[in-house]
Design goal:
2 copies of one chain form a homodimer.
Chain A (H helix, E strand, L loop, with lengths): L1 H19 L1 E3 L2 E3 L12 H15 L11 E4 H4 L5 E9 L5 E2 L2 E2 H14 L3 E13 L4 H18 L2 E10 L7 E11 L15 E4 L5 H10 L16 H10 L5 E4 L4 H12 L4 E4 L7 H10 L12 E5 L4 H9 L8 E6 L8 E4 L5 E3 L13
Parallel strand pairs in A: 7-8, 12-15
Antiparallel strand pairs in A: 1-2, 4-9, 5-6, 7-9, 10-13, 10-14, 11-13, 12-14, 15-16
Helix pairs in contact in A: 2-5, 4-5, 7-10
């Protein structure tokens, strides 16, 4: 009678911590996440009140219904089109130099909205938590989400909490979906790159990938590389104001800038050349990549964007980005070829030769975001 | 040098299946999900093209950008308010009598939108997949999502794919977030129940919970209980047309109808009484609950709603629901007391006594949805 055993075992797992919880002002308080916290009953309600509502508190957060609601007329003040995106975050480790999974889950989705020219407005937050996680750890992650959302000017408006048995997920996975509104003027698209357009980035590449690699392993290097995890909506606003004919922007996350630039070349049916010497990569990151046989062009970023800007607006775009804290090291790293082969990306190397920069085929680092 | 070992091992894990994949029309084709499929590069692109785009194909599915876009003016034709919701699905097993995790992931989010009076329109789809899953299994789940979305009249417009190492998640977790638009006339709220309002349900309760329990264990019972997993948007439209002053609707998922009715009593500061004899529960489900010591009022449903309807509109509401295939067995199971203690739910039992029906405190069945 396995089902009974399983059931009884689950019941005892779930009840033991409940029994040891204290009642504080009529709320169940436990220091460890149990399966009961995902059960849809009182334990879950109390966890939501205690952890999520406290941290995310805002007037749009609907605590009683399973949905958040907005007046369409309020949204229309920002523009004419709604943008919608989603990402799940499964990063390992969940805390790393420069951030944690909570900060990442806000930045990643804010950036996916902002790169389309949207003002990010509202986010959902759905958590899958492994039984046994310390409530204090969860609180730390949730507080980080709240702080990052505040800094990014977005509201977390609804959510979901699931708890799975020990061993059925690795600590915590977070999904955020987001909506924003795109200004009428903005018509960005990955297929819009034209000959002579310049390829810009807003700073040093590969920091996130290298920081996670460093945090995950035990190389005991004293390198202080931190993840670049940051919300880019303000920088993008600044960039689009300075260069209103910008063709396309994308944050260079999994797959690195190599994958983004390949997607541009592919969708715009053009060739692109980038200059190795112009591409900003920290010496520490280069060193990491040399030791591990990785290519920094494929390393993930969480606060770096690739922008395709018409040549005539490049100087203004660079100046505007460099005046913003998240664009201080912005660089012009290449351009769209006039006679390039459609879909091909090449790099002028520091030795003077040229090499093909293909899309990432396999996987450099799993669970990088 | 653990980090190197780890990295090399990951590389070989990821490369082995890639090496054994075939190239079909320039696409990497593999029969097993590898970490490379979550890497953001070519393997992921090809998986997305092969599995997701094929199944979800629709004009709003933005395959080139990380966001879907809609004209706000198009949304405004349906009503005045946008509704937004999210849920992650971690059900075990992923295939069960009456459905699978894909069908559930569509129905659950469609229902969370519809219960607020919203017309469900657009869904996101974010998957966390365990390395080693058969691509054919994934395709089956994705096809089920596509079929259910089509039946529910919603479009899947953007998504995300993550792959985690073997043992870091249990097969597959799916998050869907959704948006819909609420008609100007509808003002549903959990705090709106009033004395004498009736509590209606649309059919037999607890089927989903019992079906999952049966599918998970090995009791070898021949009971043909199937999950009630279904999209309820049409039934809700029918109900709201017949009973336009309906106070509140919610789907009774985790925590069962007991938790929903407690939330109503709590938010509306009223007492509610339900009648055991009027509450539709199949004999098979009752039998299950007796054997396992479970209370069917707490069993999860995935195609059942609780509606609070003014007494004057109850007959019309019941007739309208019973004329719809998903409401054939709709029942009036109780009412809001005039002099009940705020927040208390009681049941008139079949033996003639009364008992308190509290909110679920612990967990009856983990990973039920």
């Amino acid at each position: 009678m396995n089902v009974l055993d399983k059931n009884l075992q689950v019941a005892s797992d779930a009840e033991a911590p409940i029994a040891s919880t204290r009642l504080r002002q009529g709320k169940l308080v436990s220091s460890v996440i149990t399966l009961a916290h995902g059960g849809g009953g009182k334990a879950m309600r109390d966890l939501i009140d205690d952890v999520f509502i406290n941290a995310f508190s805002n007037s749009s957060l609907n605590t009683l219904e399973d949905q958040a609601r907005f007046q369409l007329s309020d949204l229309a003040q920002y523009g004419d089109r709604l943008a919608m995106t989603t990402d799940s975050y499964v990063i390992d480790p969940i805390f790393f130099p420069g951030g944690d999974i909570g900060k990442l889950a806000i930045c990643g989705t804010v950036n996916d909205l902002a790169v389309g020219g949207a003002k990010p407005l509202y986010l959902t937050c759905a958590m899958i938590i492994e039984e046994g996680m310390q409530v204090s750890t969860l609180k730390q992650i949730v507080q980080s989400m709240a702080d990052t959302a505040k800094a990014a000017g977005v509201l977390i408006v609804t959510g979901d909490t699931k708890v799975v048995e020990r061993g059925s997920c690795d600590k915590i996975f977070i999904n955020t979906a987001g909506i924003g509104v795109i200004k009428k003027d903005y018509q960005l698209g990955v297929h819009k790159a034209q000959a002579h357009d310049r390829i810009l980035v807003n700073g040093y590449l590969g920091d996130h990938g290298a920081a996670i690699l460093n945090a995950r392993g035990d190389m005991h290097l004293s390198s202080p590389i931190e993840s670049d995890c940051a919300p880019l909506h303000e920088l993008i606003e600044v960039l689009l104001n300075a260069a209103p004919n910008t063709r396309f922007i994308r944050d260079a996350t999994r797959g690195g800038i190599a994958s983004v630039i390949n997607e541009i070349a592919d969708a715009s049916k053009c060739g692109i050349e980038i200059q190795e010497t112009a591409t900003p990569i920290r010496n520490e990151v280069k060193g990491f990549c040399e030791i591990l046989g990785l290519d920094p062009l494929y390393l993930a970023n969480e606060g770096k964007l690739v922008a395709v800007v018409p040549a005539a607006e490049t100087a203004a775009a660079l100046a505007a980005m460099r005046a913003h804290p998240l664009g201080r090291d912005a660089a012009d790293i290449g351009y769209v070829l006039e006679d390039g082969r459609a879909g091909r990306v090449q790099m002028q190397t520091s030795f003077g030769g040229k090499r093909i920069v293909d899309m990432l085929v396999g996987e450099q680092l799993p669970r990088i975001c």
